[in-house]
Amino acid sequence: MSFADNAHAVFASVVRGPRGLFVKPHCQKNPPRPQKPLELYEFEACPYCRKVREEMTELDLSFVTRTCAQGAEQKRQFVEQQGGKRQFPFLVDPNTGQKLYESEDIIDYLADQYGAGRVPLGPTFAPVNTVFAMVSSAVRPKGRKVRAGFENRDQPDELPVLYNFEFSPYCRKVREVFNELNLDYRVENVGKMSSRRPELEQRGGKVQVPYLIDPNTGEEMYESDDIVEYLEDVYG
C-alpha cells in the first residue's frame, strides 16, 4: 500500500511540474524572515491553496497552516467572520495587518512584500497555472475532508513543526493527514537553495523532508510513513 501511495503522490507532483521546488534567486540572497509568522487558512486538496503554498516555498517563507478541510467548522467560521465569506485560501499577515482572499491577490502581495515582486508574465499565465493546479488536485484529492469525530478538536498547546517543501510528494502525504485530523501546524519551508537547509541538517543530521518536530512530546523524525503513523497514534 505504501508503494502505491508513494507512486500516486509522486504522480501528482509530476503533473504539477517543478512549482514549489526551488527558492527564487532573490530570496536565496535575501531570505524573508517576518517577525511574526504568517497564517494561511487553507486545505491540501484546494488547487488555489496549492498555488499559494508553492509561492511560499519559492519565497522561502515559513508560516502557520490553519487546516480548513471540509468539517473544520470553527476555523471556517473564523474565516467568514474575518472576511465575510468562507473562501480559501485566506491569508493573515500580523506583520502588516493584511487579510486577503483570492490566490492571485495573495501571490501578488507575498511577492511584493517578501520577494522581488512578481515576474511580468505571472498574471498572464495565471489561468494556465490554475488549470494545472486543478489537475494535480484532481489526480490526488486527499486532505479535502476532516474525518468524522475530529470536526471540533482542540489544538495542542504548541503546534507541531513540519520541515517541508510544496513539491515533495512525501510531504504531501503528511500534510493530507494533518488536514484529515483537523490539526494545525507550522511549516518551515526548505525548498532547494533555502537558507534553512543547514538548520535542518544541524537539527536532524541530514537534509531530508518531511521532518517533524512535536514540541508537545519531544519527538522528532524523518520518513513520511513514520510521521503519518505517529500523527495517527498521538492525534488520531
Description:
This protein is an alpha+beta fold. It has one domain (2-235): Glutaredoxin (3-Layer(aba) Sandwich), CATH 3.40.30. The chain has nine helices and eight strands. It has an eight-stranded mixed beta sheet with strand order 4-3-1-2-6-5-7-8, sandwiched between helices. Helix 1 crosses helix 7, helix 3 crosses helix 6 (126-139) and helix 7 (169-180) runs parallel beside helix 9. The longest helix is centred in the N-terminal third of the chain and has 15 residues, at 2-16. The chain is globular and about 45 Å long. The protein starts with a helix and ends with a helix.
List the helices and strands and how they pair.
Layout: H1 2-16, H2 25-29, E1 38-42, H3 47-58, E2 63-67, H4 73-83, E3 90-93, E4 98-100, H5 103-114, H6 126-139, E5 161-164, H7 169-180, E6 185-189, H8 197-204, E7 211-214, E8 219-222, H9 224-235
Parallel strand pairs: 1-2, 5-6
Antiparallel strand pairs: 1-3, 2-6, 3-4, 5-7, 7-8
Essential attributes:
236 residues; alpha+beta; Glutaredoxin; 9 helices; 8 strands; 14% strand; globular
Write a short abstract of this structure.
With 236 residues, the protein is an alpha+beta fold. 43% of the residues lie in helices and 14% in strands.
**CATH domain fold name:** Glutaredoxin
Helix content: 40-55%
Distance between the termini: 20 Å
Order of neighbouring strands in the sheet with most strands: 4-3-1-2-6-5-7-8
CATH structural class: Alpha Beta
SSE run = HHEHEHEEHHEHEHEEH
Oligomer: single chain
How much of the polypeptide forms β-strand, as a percent range?
5-15%
Q: Count the strands?
A: 8
CATH 4th-level superfamily? Glutaredoxin
Structural class: alpha+beta
Largest sheet: 8 strands, mixed
Tell me the overall shape. Answer: globular
**Rg to the nearest angstrom?**
17 Å
Low-confidence stretches: none
Average pLDDT score: 94
Count of all domains: 1
